[in-house]
Amino acid sequence: MGGFSLWHILIFAVIVLLLFGGNRFSTMMGDVAKGLKSFKQGMADDEDKSRSQDPRQLPPQQPIDVTPRASDPVTPSPPPSDQNPR
Question: What top-level branch of life does the organism fall under (predicted)?
Answer without folding.
Answer: Bacteria
